[in-house]
Amino acid sequence: xxxxxxxxxxxxxxxxxARLYAPMQPDxxxxxxxxxxxxFAPDADLDPATGxxxxxxxxxxxxxxxxxxxxxxxxxxxxxxxxxxxxxxxxLILESPRDRLEFGHTGDLGVxxxxxxxGVFQKIREGDPNPIAYLWQTNSDGQFQIGKPNRPPTxxxxxxxxxxxxxxxxxYVMQRKYDQFGVRTNNCTDLAVEAAALAGINLINxxxxxxxxxxxxxxxxxxxxxxxxxxxxxxxxxxxxxADLRQLAQFGIGSDVTAWYLELK
Length: 265
Hints:
The chain is α+β, with helices and mostly antiparallel strands. The chain is built from seven helices and eleven strands. It has helices spanning 2-16, 75-84, 116-126, 163-175, 188-198, 238-250, 258-262, and strands spanning 30-33, 60-66, 89-95, 100-106, 143-146, 155-160, 206-210, 214-217, 220-223, 232-236, 255-256. The strands form three sheets. Strands 5-4-3-2-6-11 form a six-stranded antiparallel sheet. A three-stranded antiparallel sheet has the order 1-7-10.
C-alpha cells in the first residue's frame, strides 16, 4: 500500500506543475524529480489504522517553504526564470509544549564571492568552457538562521512527532555545521529533509537535470559545459519539496498550516 501511495505522490509532483518535469529534448535537456524507495523509516511512529504519523501532545515539526516559479520545461526557460527570481528557501519550526524554535540554513550571500547564479553568468560572459561548474563548488558563507526570514513562505507543512524525535532533531540541529553552503549539498533544503528523516519520514526534494552543451542566454548561444562530468546536475530544491509536501497533506500525512503561520505576529 505504501508503494502505491509513494507512486501517487511522485507522479503528483510532476503533474501538479509541468515546470518540474521535461522529457529528453533534442538539445540534451531533461528534468525530473528524484523519488525514493521508501516513504517512512522502519521505526516511524505511525497510526496502525491509518498509516499516518502520530506524536506526543504538543510536539510538532514544521517545514516552511518559499518556492520560486522556476520553469524546468527547457534550458532557456530555466535560465530566464532564475534570472527573474534567483532565490528560494526552506526552513523549519521545532515545537514542544514549552517552546517553538524557528530556524534554517542560509548562505549564498554574495559577500566574499559571487552568488551561484551570478557566478555562472559571469563565467558565461568570460567565455569559460564550463561555466556551470561554478555550481559544483562550496561557499563558506553559510549561517544558522534564527527566527523568521524576511520573506513569507508559500507553503507550511506540520507533522506530529514524539518527544524522542523532538530531542533527536534538536540535538542534530545544534551540532550541525552551518558555515559551508552549496547548491548540490549542504543547503537549506537539505537541512529540512534531514530533520524530516530524523522524524521518520523521507521527503522528495531533489531534481535530476541533464544539461545541454549549449543554450541560448541573452539572445546568443552560449556554452554550458565542455567537460562531460558537468552534464548531469542533481540537487535539492524548494520547488520539488513543496510539491511533495502539498501531496502529503492531501493524503493526510501531515497538514497544511500556511494560513495559521501567516496570521502569526
